[in-house]
Amino acid sequence: MIVIITCILVAIFLINFFLYWIIFLKTERKISKWWDIYTQIYLVIWTSIIFLIPIITSIYSSLLFNSEIFYKFPSFELEIIFIILGLILIGLSIKFGISTMKLNKMKGLAKGRFPLITKGVYKIMRHPLNTSWAILFLGLALVFESLIALIIFPFFVLLLWVEGLLEEKCILIPQHGKKYEEYKEKVQSRMFPTPYNVLLILIIIFIVYVGVFYYITNIGG
Fold first, then answer.
1. Domains (ranges, CATH) in the chain?
2. How far is it, in rounded angstroms, from Cα 84 to Cα 121?
């Protein structure tokens, strides 16, 4: 049941994503009430599914549906460490998200205006909002001990990377030209600048190591 629900949510998420970008690229996106409403619906679906997947596939839902599809820890102490790590990641994502929204006021995507912002968090990464989404999803996966969400995470990051690429190729470069090219040269990280990329890799290695170690220990026992 949990796998079926997850597949449905992922399908809705992907349809929502690709439908939005197809409409975005195929229309003139003039400032209008319908486009504003549609964008808000798109963002609500996006946000809701990002929260729903870790929650529905959490250890608590697995116990409710009599399923064993959740991340298993070799000790209670390690479980607490993962939950604290997840809360820290959620806090970082909120920080990045608020900083980004303060700079662009979330009006660019809704109204078709994409101003070139080069200050604040944009000094270290070109798409900080995408970074905040990725960190939030990973944090929720750890807090809710969701194995499925951890498996989905790399694909979610790839989708965010594609979205950043689409924004740059189809909107920002045509709109700002040489200024954006110069900005790209100055800020080369699209989502995860150093040392954040190194830290993320270490966290993922740690997560995988704990899971594999637990599996090997159980098989050995």
1. 2-220 (1.20.120)
2. 24
